[in-house]
Design a protein that fits this description.
Helix content: 25-40%
Number of strands: 8
Oligomer: single chain
Distance between the termini: 44 Å
CATH architecture: 3-Layer(aba) Sandwich
Shape: globular
Number of domains: 1
CATH class: Alpha Beta
Number of helices: 10
CATH topology: Rossmann fold
Strand order of the largest sheet: 3-2-1-6-7-8
Strand content: 5-15%
């Protein structure tokens, strides 16, 4: 029997090989959008503020951006078989993203994975540039657009111990509040800095094999208040 009872998985750079939000900024955004990511890395602004600045730099309709993104965005080759493995075991898999996200559902549906739950932001295409809403943000903290801390906590309340799978800066708080973490790329150094125990992964086959062998879970390291907390 698996020790983990639910899965929380990042999308851009994790379930999907590309960071689709960055692809769209490269093609439809104004020059210099990277400076907001750099400000987040330096701790000068939160992900929600950076995302708002970057969304305002986009020039293009929803249809134009989807037509660009869908042929170029590739799900990780081992992700569909991982989803099938989880489904066979009644192991809920929730995707959590702090990106632009309007492309996630169309990508999943094209792959026959439209049944997956997605927790993310909402882009509104009105006026000269889109704007971003945060239906899955924290009710008080404005550090992140999508609160992955709450996503992990709510999933644990519903189903039990949670495994988090991610790759970058926006995954820091999901990792801090999950029972076991699978990390690659930038998330490895972040977990090491935060003292979060993790397993390295490259493919979802690695994640599956890890989940099948884990007997003892470290449990969430995060405290009552997320370290990324920012008040309005």
């Amino acid at each position: 029997m698996l020790a983990v009872k639910a899965l929380l998985v990042d999308f851009d750079g994790t379930a999907c090989l590309q960071d689709v939000s960055e692809m769209l900024l490269d093609t439809f955004g104004e020059p210099g959008w990277e400076r907001f990511d750099e400000a987040v890395d330096r701790g000068e602004m939160g992900l929600r503020e950076a995302g708002a600045q970057q969304v305002a730099m986009l020039r293009g309709s929803r249809e134009e951006m989807l037509a660009f993104a869908l042929p170029r965005a590739q799900l990780a080759p081992s992700f569909p078989t991982f989803v099938a493995w989880a489904d066979e075991r009644d192991l809920p898999l929730v995707l959590a993203s702090d990106g632009f996200a309007f492309y996630i559902r169309p990508i999943l549906e094209e792959a026959g994975l439209g049944h997956l739950e997605v927790v993310t932001n909402e882009l509104v295409f009105e006026g000269p540039a889109p704007s971003q809403l945060h239906p899955n943000g924290h009710p008080v903290c404005i550090g992140c657009g999508t609160c992955k801390m709450l996503a992990a906590q709510r999933l644990r309340e519903r189903r039990g111990p949670v495994a988090f799978v991610g790759d970058g800066q926006s995954d820091r708080y999901g990792a801090l509040y999950s029972d076991i973490v699978f990390a690659k790329d930038a998330l490895v150094a972040i977990c090491e800095l935060d003292g979060v125990l993790f397993r390295r992964w490259e493919t979802f086959d690695d994640v599956r094999e890890g989940l099948e062998t884990i007997e003892n879970l470290a449990g969430p390291l995060g405290g009552e208040r997320c370290p990324g907390w920012r008040s309005p």
